[in-house]
Amino acid sequence: MHNPKKFPEGFLWGGATAANQVEGGFNEGNKGLNIADVLPGGKERLKLLLEPGFDFEVNKEKYTYPNHEAIDFYHRYKEDIALFAEMGFKVFRMSIAWTRIFPNGDELEPNEEGLAFYDRVFDELHKYGIEPVVTISHYEMPVNLVKEYGGWRSRQVVTFFERYVSVIFNRYKGKVKYWLTFNEINSGLHFPIMGLGFAIQKESDKYQSTFQAYHHQFVASSTAVKLCRELMPDAKIGCMILYAPVYAYDSNPENVLYALQEHQLFNYFCTDVQVRGEYPAFIKRYFNDYDIQLEIQEGDLELIKENTVDYISLSYYMSRTEKVDKTEEEKGQGNILSGVRNPFLEASEEWGWEIDPTGLRTSLNQLYGRYQVPLFVVENGLGARDEVASDGSIKDDYRIDYLRNHIKAMGEAMEDGVELMGYTPWGCIDLVSMSTGEMSKRYGLIYVDKQDDGSGTLERKRKKSFFWYKDVIASNGEVL
């Protein structure tokens, strides 16, 4: 299929993963425990975190822990990078596991074995001409910082993060040109354990804790930007958000207003601070309504103002539809961000995520219209069950259709005037699902023989989408 919308020369095609979902080797190389390492597998994993008494310990008699081995990228990265190169990747979005560099998070000296591992990964990528796009913190905070300090609620964690960033920037300044600070930073508004390092257990403490933690992350992010500019003036450093445009269910003005407020809080709050360099006007009303009093140290606001990001990277999976009064029957079952079912959208069969490629075009226009900085779609994909045929082939036409329609939407957005840097679909290789800990919820263009019960050979197989995406990259988006 020919795409009439041409992509710009130098467009950054690639794929995206996260250390905690692909690496495995959870206790090798002096690595410490992170949040993902203590998350059990299964659809209830995020609910478990909200139960009183969840102790962030590994209990193998009671649970399985799919992240411990994941897909064993830790030992198989050369094989996987060769497959990425075969597809023609220009970039590979990955993350550094904080606990490989500082196992407990609060040490004074880094772990050389962890640093050396990423040296090898970056060297392997460069061997094939692939630029790493590195997320500094991707849902894998050291468990020690959660248990001993309360996660990002603690100002001390800013100091620990700054030490970590200083070490990796100095070590990899000749090897990494593209950096992202916090993965899906705004997701903490819905599930704070992954990004903010604590589970909300008391409603009375919910708002104060969340937004104080955010302030600390904004200070940490700005510190990283400042350090990046000092050490790597030619590098680019961006923020990363989970973007989900919020539609009003109908034209009832009450629903329109509610959708606008939800959209602003979720999609613009964190980006306004990181891109514009100041807290947005709309958040003041929110702070007043919920009696939120931020502890802001002298110099914080100046640091944030003077160290804004170079670009916005985003994940886009779905839109969200909202109304003020929603019944249980109306709620969107699969959408991790709640909302109500949109009668105009189809949903993925197994997990119920609504599919809305036009929403990506809308999102890119909204973001670029508000900020006028380059955008980078670093996550987008379809989780589905894949069947291996008797001849060994995997015909995932449903994934091809999904990606094709979203790439078309990006092309339309660029015609609309949006400046888009690149596209790295999520899970270019099968990996452990963040929300459910399943392997069966597959996103990859490369199949990994690993099942939910832990069985499998870990053999890699090229899916039909692998060959399709190779053609997309080779034609710079013209052949879809």
TrEMBL record:
Keyword Lipid biosynthesis appears in the UniProt entry: no
InterPro entries in alphabetical order: GH, GH_1_N_CS, Glyco_hydro_1, Glyco_hydro_1_AS
GO BP, one annotated term: carbohydrate catabolic process
Active site: E379
Family: Belongs to the glycosyl hydrolase 1 family.
Entry GO MF terms: beta-glucosidase activity
Entry annotated with the keyword Hydrolase: yes
Lineage of source species: Bacteria, Bacillati, Bacillota, Bacilli, Bacillales
One Pfam family matching this protein: Glyco_hydro_1
Record's keyword terms, sorted: Glycosidase, Hydrolase
Name this protein carries in UniProt: 6-phospho-beta-glucosidase
GO cellular component: cytosol
PANTHER family: 6-PHOSPHO-BETA-GLUCOSIDASE ASCB-RELATED, GLYCOSYL HYDROLASE
